[in-house]
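Researcher: Here's a chain I'd like modeled. Treat it as a single chain, no partners, no ligands.
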Amino acid sequence: MPDDLDTTELAQIRLTLADALAAGSGDAVVASYLELVHALVDAHQLVAAATELEYALLRLPRSTLAMWRLQLCLAGLYSGLGDLERARRTAQLGHDLARGAASALGQQRAKELLARLSRHGPKASLLP
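Model: Modeled as a single isolated chain. Structure tokens:
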């Protein structure tokens, strides 16, 4: 059932995340956080998912190249929670991070999300 959060799955994701953090692998940490957020979103726990991403963004060094992925995911969550202005600011920061990481894909996704936020308001969402 999608509304139920599988605590065993969540524990496994958190273990993988802890391993990635211990290894200092930025890409693995980003991937693990995205997996965790995906599980929380599937269980309709958007606030918890946003909180996890906020924590991740505080925890990771700004030099982590894939941080733009977390930022854009967080922007999509803010949008889904109805905080359009915060979603726009977060998406813009995601765009800036993608540009700094020389990620054409990240810049494109950020532009698409910003366009959706401008056109459709708080219902726009994009989880990279």
